[in-house]
Amino acid sequence: MARIVVDVMPKPEILDPQGKAIVRAFPHQGITAFSGVRQGKRFELEVDGEVTEEVLATARHAAETMLSNPVIEDVVNVSVIDNSDSAEA
């Protein structure tokens, strides 16, 4: 079974309160290397069969119309992942 990954991030001009909370919490954990965080969403779409260009186009359409809010979010990635690296639970 193949998987398509869709990553969605808030548009740059949109405030990200979760990201700000995370970056403020880092120093309390001794993490000082990062000055900013943007939190997004990741979707994994399972595909029975081969991932063709048509299937990828359908995934892009779903990402732009259903998985993201185009007013405040950008779809930043739609790609196929290799399942041979991940173990089934």
Automatic annotation (TrEMBL):
Q: Which Pfam family, just one, is annotated for this protein?
A: PurS
| Top-level lineage group | Bacteria
Listed GO MF terms: ATP binding; phosphoribosylformylglycinamidine synthase activity
Tell me the compartments it is located in: Cytoplasm
- Listed pathway(s): Purine metabolism; IMP biosynthesis via de novo pathway; 5-amino-1-(5-phospho-D-ribosyl)imidazole from N(2)-formyl-N(1)-(5-phospho-D-ribosyl)glycinamide: step 1/2
What's a GO biological-process term for it? 'de novo' IMP biosynthetic process
Q: Which UniProt keywords apply?
A: ATP-binding, Cytoplasm, Ligase, Nucleotide-binding, Purine biosynthesis
Q: Which GO terms describe its cellular component?
A: cytoplasm
| Major site of localization recorded for this protein | cytoplasm
Q: Which reaction does it catalyse?
A: N(2)-formyl-N(1)-(5-phospho-beta-D-ribosyl)glycinamide + L-glutamine + ATP + H2O = 2-formamido-N(1)-(5-O-phospho-beta-D-ribosyl)acetamidine + L-glutamate + ADP + phosphate + H(+)
Indicate the quaternary assembly.
Answer: Part of the FGAM synthase complex composed of 1 PurL, 1 PurQ and 2 PurS subunits.
Q: What does this protein do?
A: Part of the phosphoribosylformylglycinamidine synthase complex involved in the purines biosynthetic pathway. Catalyzes the ATP-dependent conversion of formylglycinamide ribonucleotide (FGAR) and glutamine to yield formylglycinamidine ribonucleotide (FGAM) and glutamate. The FGAM synthase complex is composed of three subunits. PurQ produces an ammonia molecule by converting glutamine to glutamate. PurL transfers the ammonia molecule to FGAR to form FGAM in an ATP-dependent manner.
Q: Which family does it belong to?
A: Belongs to the PurS family.
PANTHER family xrefs: PHOSPHORIBOSYLFORMYLGLYCINAMIDINE SYNTHASE SUBUNIT PURS (PTHR34696)
What is this protein called in UniProt?
A: Phosphoribosylformylglycinamidine synthase subunit PurS
Organism per entry: Kocuria subflava
